[in-house]
Design a protein that fits this description.
Shape: globular
Helix content: 40-55%
Strand order of the largest sheet: 1-4-5-6-7-8-9
Bound molecules: coproporphyrinogen III
Low-confidence stretches: none
Number of helices: 16
Number of domains: 1
CATH topology: TIM Barrel
Distance between the termini: 25 Å
Radius of gyration: 19 Å
Amino acid sequence: MAAQKTILRALSGETLPVPPVWLMRQAGRYLPEYRATRAQAGDFLSLCYTPELAAEVTLQPIRRYGFDAAILFADILLIAQALGADLWFAQGEGPRLSTVTGPADLARLKPAGAIHTTLAPVYDTVRLLTGALPAETTLIGFAGAPWTVASYMIAGRGTPDQGPAHALMQADPATFDALIALLTEATVEYLSAQIAAGAEVVKLFDSWAGSLKGADFARYAVEPTRQIIAALKARHPGIPVIAFPREAGQGYIGFARATGADCVALDNSVSADWAAANVQVDGCVQGNLAPGHMVTGGPALVEEARRIVRAFSGGPHIFNLGHGITPEADPANVDLLLKAIRG
Ligand code: CP3
């Protein structure tokens, strides 16, 4: 039965007549029902850590649109908090964390195995979803990739160029490498627990992979991803993994082969035709409509969606955006998108 789910079929390499579809941040502020549940929770982190409410917002876009996959509602930065960092979301300003700038900060973090105490509610959310999702909907768990999570832990916030993380990599490579190693181990623990609770696929978000160049890309984007996937597949044989090294550019080529990922998610800075020829040759790809179309809609949305479906029609493809849907998106444009893809 499980093998019939369209997302799992695409991930196993099947070319489907209509690509399965879900959207990054599909549970989010563009939906009035999300805003209502978030208000009920009080704040974003309480929403993440209250299993009934986190499961509810995960289900909202499934009820409204019938996406082929649900993605667990949580955040990539919860793992930093579980390792002992302070984490808060300043209203309208994004995440803030205590910083890791040297060996003393690193020494204050907990070992990887300690994360489950804080993250137990996330596993409860997964268990609730396993019982609540329609039979045809695939449940995706996720984590941030070590480089991206480290970039927030080092800077204490989001940064346009990950400057503080690059600086620590140069100034104190021992601390930097130890933080990446800790996050690699903790991410295996975290995703493994999500899988044990019922996640059928896991995705690694390396949102800032694009700022790693040359040997740094190989060392801090490819290698941690390879290690995490190898460990997960040893513990959970056959578990499909989607990797998203956002803005990797030429680095997308061979990324699946180098890491063992079953699918590479593509941002919208690469053309679908280029990616079909250079990335999809190695297996399933996911993507890559520009999120702005979900704000503007109209014939341009329909044409661009169809163009992407055609470009990837010769191989396994999961339709998605190139990055998360934004709060300004019009919910009606999601209906328009689904009609364009499903006919
Ligand atoms: O629907 C889903 O995609 C599942 C839930 C999910 C969220 N964040 C919820 C969220 C997922 C998979 C993420 C991943 C995430 N979080 C990433 C990687 C993907 C990417 O966008 O590149 C990153 C970098 C983060 C860190 C993060 N969380 C930031 C920078 C912000 C603030 C920016 C913003 O959009 O406001 C968040 C907050 C966040 N995470 C929101 C949601 C729905 C908005 C918070 C709110 O409701 O106020």
